[in-house]
Amino acid sequence: MTTGHRMRRTGLRVAMGAGLLASLAGVYAFRSLTARPGEGALRFVPADALAVVSIDLSPSASQTVAFKKIDDALARNGFDGMVEKSLIDIFDGGTPGADALRPLTTRSGAVALLPGADGTMKQAKGLALLAVTDGAAAQAALDKFGAVQYYKGAKCYKFKNGKSSYMLEGDTLLVGENPASLYRARQVISGAAPAITADAQFNGARTHVADDANIKLFVSPKLMSSPEMQQASGMMRDWMAVGVAIRDGGIGVSYASLVDLTKQPALAQMGQIPGIRSDLFKVLPAGAYGATVLSQPATYFESVEGKLREDKNVQKEMSEMEESLQKETGMDFRKDVLPAFKGNAVVAAYPASTGAAAGADLLIVLDDSNGADPANATERFRNWVERQMEKEGKQQGPLWTDRQAEGAHFFRISDKVEADLRKSMGEGMDANQINKSALVDSKTVAWAVVGRAVLASTNQQLLDRAVQSYQHGVGGLETDPKFGPIEKDLVDGSQQIMMFSLSRIAEGVKNTVNTSKMDKDGRGIFESVLDAFANLDQPLTIKGKMQSDGRASGGMFIPLDYDKLLDFAGKMKNKK
Fold first, then answer.
1. Which end of the chain is least crowded, N or C, by CB within 10 Å?
2. Are residues 297 and 319 located together in one domain of the fold?
3. Which of the pair, 541 or 117, is modelled with greater confidence?
4. What integer is the mean pLDDT of 402-425?
């Protein structure tokens, strides 16, 4: 082999090695930048902790934009350093030692509630673990400002006029309510006692909250079963987990717990409820302000009823209610009313027209999923109303009209009844202060029977659109720019859903209320509030479900405009 070949092969190896080292360095740098020291500090928390909170307020890759907005807004409003200050000042604010440690603390750490000597919440003590940027500098601050203490051989510090005890482990500052808390942590560090991270149930609970959650709260079933928590005793047989994630556009919350169904049998029925229909966003028309959706609301009633009937007085009252309903209307509560609510139930709000949002109308949908029969209950109720009016002999003309169209049976109150309704609604409204036309002009009571499902609305045009969406899956929420993007997140087997477009609601209020008659200050506050919601493109959402094994889980998204929120807070601060 020639010298040239050897040099080329050597050069190739060097290049490959350099590339590998560069790749490893990149991975290490990325992991360092995106590390979560708050969760890392959990390795110092004793395994018998009753509650644990991890705090990681440094952004993950997906949170960079959101944190940049927040940091910039905090800085320009004089709130920079607020998080670090609030963490250290919780313990010994105002002491020279805390002042020296404050610049070294980061946005990450963990807090734990440790049981008392009897293993319960009684005399429980707190333990905090705060990440610091420079362990050596933190140790120097402890040496300079702290008085040395020893507890069972464990060395710790306490500041003059301070309440807490301190210890340093690498780049983690341990803060305890007393030296005993730090001793417990020292046992974990030395390997003499297990850490919470060795608990399989605890680690399982960590998987039930969002990976990008910046704040994670975990509550042990031991805490819920302690004598001090008698009312909640038996509610959980696993760790309860709650996660809070700061995201671009708002805050996401996720939660999970495992209910002990042997001690809470009334909740067992809820675990059998099927998820909300998968085509929900097809069958509801676009343009909504928001909606609340439940799967099988009758089962919720039956679950609560089972618990209430343990009280003999309540049992008697419910029996009397059912007998009265049967006598007055001829409707059987068990055979007619409850079956109407065995499917999906939707209560939604919409603008009065499809143009600019203004006014408000309701849409109610009771579908025939799971064998539900709302059509039967509606028909029996309608027949009862007709009998009552005939009996009283006061009704002039029909109460409603009906028509058949495209496989649906439509009903609408008569023109006279409708005119009386609109007149009564408009009484007392000042057209100079409110958009009376948007609130009153289209009001009616109309409903349609599609199969065994019933759709009802206060607006005939809205009902017509709803029937089209329900029958043919056209013009649904999936096409709505406000709601379409969240379909997959909400329709995931959840049994309860709430969703509201705050920006569309703000637009509707703005176009319904006339601010010209308000005083200057009142108008300014009113418009500032609406402006804060105007750019919130993502809806406010809440979802939840209960599984057959007792696992309850769900989430929430709270849309926020960080810039406007913190700028408003800054203005309020400057006014003081």
1. C
2. yes
3. 541
4. 94
Q: Which two tokens stand for residue 312?
A: 């003999």
Together in a domain, 377 and 397: yes
Locate 571 and state its tokens: 């203005």
What would the mean pLDDT of 183-193 be, rounded to a whole number? 95
What value, to the nearest 5°, has the Cα angle with vertex 467 and ends 461 and 468? 90
**Mind listing the pLDDT tens digit for each residue in 72-87?**
888 898 887 666 666 7
Burial 444-454 (b: 16+ CB within 10 A, else e): bbbbbbbebbb
What CA–CA distance (Å, rounded) separates 332 from 311? 23
Q: Does residue 415 share a domain with residue 312? A: yes
Neighbours of 420 (CB within 10 A): 12
d(CA 72, CA 385): 62
* Cβ within 8 Å of residue 55, ≥6 positions away: 38, 87, 107, 108, 109, 110, 111, 214, 215
Q: CA 405 to CA 388: how far, in whole Å?
A: 28
pTM of the model: 0.86
Q: Where are the alpha helices (DSSP H) in 194-248?
A: 200-206, 221-224
CB 143 within 8 A of CB 58: no
Q: Which of 282, 302, 295 is nearest to 372 (CA)?
A: 295
**For residue 238, how many other CB atoms are within 10 A of its CB?**
19
For 117, the domain range is 35-258
pLDDT of 463 reads 98
Question: Are the C-beta atoms of residues 559 and 540 closer than 8 Å to each other?
Answer: yes
DSSP at 81: T
Q: Is residue 273 part of a domain?
A: yes
Contact by Cβ (8 Å): 244, 215: yes
CA–CA distances in Å: residue 7 to residues 13, 423, 502: 10, 97, 68
Which DSSP string do the residues of 474-503 spell out, in sequence order? -SBGGG-TTTGGGHHHHTTT-SEEEEE-HH
Q: What is the largest CA-CA distance in the chain?
A: 116
pLDDT in tens, 282-319: 999 999 999 999 999 999 998 888 777 778 888 889 89
**Residue 454 one-letter amino acid:** V
pLDDT of residue 121: 79
Distances in Å between the Cα of 89 and the Cα atoms of 103, 146, 157, 362, 575 are 12, 16, 16, 50, 25
First CA to last CA distance, the chain: 83
Same domain for 435 and 313: yes
203/213 Cα distance (integer angstroms): 15
Query: 415 with 545, same domain?
Result: yes
